[in-house]
Specification:
Length: about 475
């Protein structure tokens, strides 16, 4: 790496540091109840993301001018435990740079839009603090030079996603839906966590440059082969399924629409829903070593694209329809990644994120525009896909319509075979622990957790599909 790249390494570090510092400063000000107004909060957010965008452009210009493929900002090891060293390494290359541009640009755009949208909302400051934390977490994911650092950003994005889904916490449904999404995230995060441990064990390093034989994206060769590569690749696919709402783990996506429209735009239209695709693109050297994982990813992607298309056609509100459209597009992106079309998948992500953000932000005026176009056309506009419906018998069409309305019965299947048994096991363990505590120390042996689990089980089995 030449002198210019060495000089740009601190600049890359500032890209991540700016939103994190702004989050900490505004969060502390709100906790201390300092007199910060809406205008000040909005200006801080705009200045932070605008400065970060300029720094990203500086990194890109430096790479173009020197012809270098990447910028590595190594800030050393944070701690060492029994031979393990947690290294803080940031990486700017041909994969991370487009995502950095998307993150800084779209977060700044959403922040500007939210100045009016969230005006006089009691949670105005809290929204912008979470938006800045999300930007820091997303930048950490895409700039991470190690799998450990990526996992840290992955968790930050999951936490902010859940907090913004439950933003209107005075109502019961947003809180329940936020918990549902967070539970899905946590289960699928096991894949990334275990995969990171296995990469440490098999490749003897957490750095992508070392684990992938010093190959710059989209090149690079993995040291893992055979069963090792298949196991790690399948774990990464499982982690990506949860974050990108791929079937059958897509039930949380319509629930996520409980959050404010600006957060829905940036999370489930632009950035967060593509985090799983970014993970697989970064891990593509491992993925290409496992034909089985590629086949599984193709099946999941196609199933998600079909399910998202069917379910989106029967939605009664614009946000849910756009959410399922995002799921369908991400499913196609997953297929492209599995087929080794890495640059095509990256271009698809950039285009889809930009268009979907605009559609989410314009969702409140979408019906008005539709009626205006309908009037100009002189009648009712034909629905897309109607030419395929006439090819199917009426009973089949009705069955598919019912299947789409029920969202593929994914929630019911997961509840019956996964969530329900786990909750019943938790109730049994909780009751046993309380009886044991009562036997030893005396006192009340009631089990409120058991009662709450039974109540939740009864509510879910009664057909709640919110």
């Amino acid at each position: 790496m030449n002198a210019t790249m060495h000089a740009l390494a601190p600049v890359a570090g500032l890209v991540f540091l700016l939103p994190f510092v702004a989050f900490a400063a505004l969060g502390l000000a709100l906790l201390l109840r300092l007199p910060v107004g809406e205008r000040f909060i909005a200006h801080v957010t705009s200045a932070t993301m605008g400065s970060a965008l300029l720094l990203v452009l500086a990194c890109g210009a430096g790479m173009l001018a020197t012809g270098e493929d990447q910028i590595v900002a190594d800030f050393g090891g944070w701690f060492i435990v029994d031979g393990y060293e947690f290294e803080f390494v940031l990486l700017v290359d041909r994969l991370s740079l487009p995502f950095m541009l998307l993150t800084t640009t779209l977060t700044g755009l959403i922040g500007r839009f939210s100045r009016s949208y969230m005006h006089r909302d009691p949670g105005y400051g809290r929204f912008f603090v979470l938006l800045l934390l999300f930007a820091a977490g997303m930048l950490l994911i895409v700039m991470a030079g190690t799998i450990d650092l990526m996992f840290a950003g992955w968790e930050i994005v999951g936490l902010t996603s859940a907090l913004l889904i439950g933003f209107f916490h005075t109502r019961r449904e947003p809180v329940l839906n936020a918990l549902r999404a967070f539970a899905t995230y946590r289960v699928c995060d096991i894949g990334l966590l275990v995969g990171a441990v296995l990469i440490h064990h098999y490749a003897h390093s957490s750095e992508f440059d070392v684990a992938f034989d010093h190959g710059h994206w989209p090149g690079g060769l993995s040291h893992l082969e055979g069963g090792q590569a298949t196991l790690v690749a399948l774990l990464m696919v499982f982690a990506a399924m949860g974050k990108s709402a791929q079937v059958p783990l897509s039930g949380w996506l319509p629930r996520a629409m409980e959050g404010p429209t600006p957060s829905s735009a940036i999370f489930y239209g632009a950035l967060s829903i593509h985090a799983g695709a970014y993970l697989l693109l970064r891990m593509s050297p491992i993925l290409e070593r496992s034909p089985l994982a590629c086949v599984v990813l193709v099946i999941i992607g196609l199933a998600s694209a079909i399910h998202g298309t069917m379910a989106g056609r029967v939605q009664s509100d614009a946000k849910n329809s756009l959410a399922y459209a995002s799921m369908a597009q991400v499913g196609i992106i997953m297929v492209e990644i599995a087929l080794g079309l890495r640059m095509l998948a990256l271009l698809h992500i950039v285009g889809h994120a930009s268009v979907r953000t605009l559609q989410f932000l314009r969702a409140p005026s979408m019906l008005h525009d539709y009626h205006r176009v309908e009037s100009a056309a002189g009648g009712e506009l034909g629905s897309t896909g109607a030419q395929y419906e006439v090819l199917l018998p009426v009973p089949v069409r009705r069955w598919l319509y019912r299947l789409a309305l029920e969202r593929g019965y994914h929630d019911e299947i997961l509840w019956r075979f996964v969530v329900g048994p786990l909750l019943r096991l938790a109730a049994v363990l909780d009751a046993g622990e309380r009886r044991f505590a009562t036997l030893i120390g005396g006192g009340d042996g009631s089990a409120p957790v058991e009662r709450s689990i039974r109540a939740e089980t009864a509510r879910a089995s009664g057909g709640d599909r919110t």
